Structure formats: C-alpha cells, structure tokens
Amino acid sequence: MMDPNADMAGRHWDAVVIGAGPAGALAAREIARRGRSVLLVEKARFPRWKVCGACLGVAGVETLQRVGLGGLLGRIGARPVVRTRLVWRGRSVLVPMRGMVAVSRGALDAALVLAAREAGAHFVDQTHARVFGDGSVVVDDQTVPARSVVLAGGIRSAGRDGEAGAAVSKDAWIGLGVVAPLTGAGSLPDDELTMLVGRRGYLGRVVTEDGMANWAAAVDPAFVRSCGSPGEAMRAICDEAGLGVTAPGTGWVGTPALTRSTPAQRGRLYRVGDAAGYVEPITGEGMSWAMLGAAALAPVLDRALASDRHAGAWARTHAGLFRWRRARCRVVSRGLRSPLAMHAAMAALGAGRPARAAVVGRLIGGHA
Ligand SMILES: Cc1cc2nc3c(=O)[nH]c(=O)nc-3n(C[C@H](O)[C@H](O)[C@H](O)COP(=O)(O)OP(=O)(O)OC[C@H]3O[C@@H](n4cnc5c(N)ncnc54)[C@H](O)[C@@H]3O)c2cc1C
User: How far is the CA of 343 from the centre of ligand 1 (A)?
Assistant: First the structure.
C-alpha cells in the first residue's frame, strides 16, 4: 500500500502522522481534508492484524458516519453484533445489543488508510518513525521537515518511562489475542459477543467478516505466568466460566500493560488514540476513542497551523472528551474483577429486566 510519490524528506509537511491504526489513519484523512499536506507513516506491512476484540462500538460507528465514512463498514462487510453473552461461574446471561459491529483489524485499518489517501494524505508502510524531544521526526534515518507531529503509535508509545506526566497503572492487566478458524469453539452463534469472565481475567470472542473467530483477553500477567502459557491461562478462564467453550491453546500474542496515561500535547507534538492513554475494558471502546479523538483533533490542529501557535488547545479538548469516558471504563474494569459486583450484575441481568440490560449494553459499547 506504499505511496511511491511520498518524497518524505523533500517536503515541509504540515503534519507527519505516526501510526496508521484507526487514530492515525482517520486523523491523517481529516487533516488532509482541510487542505493540509500530510505524511502518514506506518511501521508494519499493511494490511496487518493486531491484538483487539474487533468490536466497534456505537460511538465509533457514529463517528465514521459524522465524517462522511458511513458506507465504509458496509463495504468491508462488518457484521452486526446482536447480543453479548456474559458468562461467569457457570451462569450465562444475554444482553441485547444494537449498533455494535465485528470487523477484522486488517480490513478496517486498511479501509481507513485508503480513505486517508483518497483525501490526499501520503502513506508509507514498513517504515519506522521516531520523534525526538525537540519535536523533530526521523523516518528511516532521514529527518523529515514537519510543522506538527501527530503521534498515533498505539499503546506502546504511551506511558513511557521517564516521560513527563506519563504513568502505567500498577495493577494493570495485559492484553492477549488470537485469530482462529471457527472449528473447535463449540456451538456459539456467529452474531454474538461471548464474554467469559474469570477471577484473574476475561476473554471475548466474536466472528468477523472474514469468517474467523477473533479472541481477545485482558488478564493478570501473574496468572498467565502461573498457568505456564497464555493458552493454558485462557483455557483456565474458559473452565472457570463453565460454558463448555474452549479457547485456542496456541498462537496468542500479548500486549504490554493496558491501563496507562500520557499528556495529549507537548507543543507541536499531538497524541491521539492509545498513544494518549488507554483504560482496560476491551470491548467497543478503544477504536471508538481513537476515531473520536482523530475527528476532534483535526480542527484543533488546523487552527494551530493557521496561527502557527501550538498552545495546548488539544490537551484541553482531549481532557474534555475523555475524562468521563475513562472514568466509566475504570468502573467497568473494576466491576469485572470484583466477585461481588459480578454477582450483583448477573443477578440483576438474570431477572430479565430490559432496562438493566440496556445499561449494561451501553457500558460495553452498544445501545441495548
Ligand atoms: C486485548 C484487547 C482487546 C481489545 N478489544 C477492543 C474492542 O473489542 N473494541 C475496541 O474498540 N477496542 C478494543 N481494544 C482497543 C483497541 O485495539 C485500541 O484502542 C485501538 O487499536 C487504538 O487505535 P490506535 O490507532 O490508537 O492504535 P493502534 O491500532 O495500536 O495503531 C497504532 C499503529 O502505529 C504503528 N506504529 C507504532 N509505532 C510506530 C512507529 N514508531 N513508526 C511507525 N508506525 C508505528 C503500529 O504498527 C500500529 O499499526 C482492545 C485492545 C486490546 C489490547
């Protein structure tokens, strides 16, 4: 997908965007749509898979509609998720969902990059970019002249040691993910998100548009070590949930600790998506936040470029957008770790009250 005409070092870019996940690709598109010159740099070869639950929540779907990309999910065949099956200690409740879709990260991220290119952004993949303290960007050993830098490099570029104001939560769990053929998962329906909750982690499974089962988990890293391998840990969570479903035993890919924070702006360095911080629950939120952030960043950056003043407007906008969303996610992730809260939630949902199911559906990223 590399753009052969990018001529990285030969231009003075209005914005260099690092990372072509949902945050970077959509930010590049939105900035380019405002007539700015944009270079989008991605280290992986595209299209690429990444660890993710592959459920895009209502907020993400609505953001795409708002920026004129409402047809994108249909074109790539994203599948509606019609219910969440929450499984805990042998009990299972169904939460009706509306508005959430399951989509593979290979297809979604490639479609967003294509949209960025159609808006005029230049794209190079298989290319590593580095940002230095003074805001200069080096791409494949070349210094690239840039008036602003958007760091959208995902979770690994947030909360770095020694970075001012950055923090990784002490009890943060890690992520695990794998994609597997449908065989062996038991007789789970294809149109649901199955969430298996254990004491030391939780595991979700959906079927994406390519007919594959996408598994993703948040788990205590000490538990994975004590089980001997990610596959054993995942199978232990399945056994504890007691639905008779078996997760794949091999092929799991891990992430660093999930919950972390980093200031969203330092002068003309702007952060968006996971690069600006992430809170653990794994369904329906991260990609939506990445897209919401990208759509909100573009007008702020455009104004800063027009006045040549990068005075902190993005830090304020970002805090306003995400403060309560992060707080809500912290509540959900603590609830999933608490037997008392899980017991209460399962009892409330099991009583068959639609209003309660609606609240839980919203908390996990879809209208119920
Ligand atoms: C286990 C797990 C399950 C999840 N489930 C869901 C879910 O169901 N729904 C949901 O909405 N969210 C989910 N998330 C969160 C979601 O995956 C992220 O929030 C989302 O991918 C963030 O998008 P992003 O664009 O910020 O970063 P990413 O998608 O991580 O993209 C960053 C990109 O930057 C590139 N990059 C990094 N450094 C460089 C560099 N130096 N130079 C060039 N390129 C670079 C990377 O290769 C990558 O392609 C889950 C996360 C985990 C860990």
Answer: 32
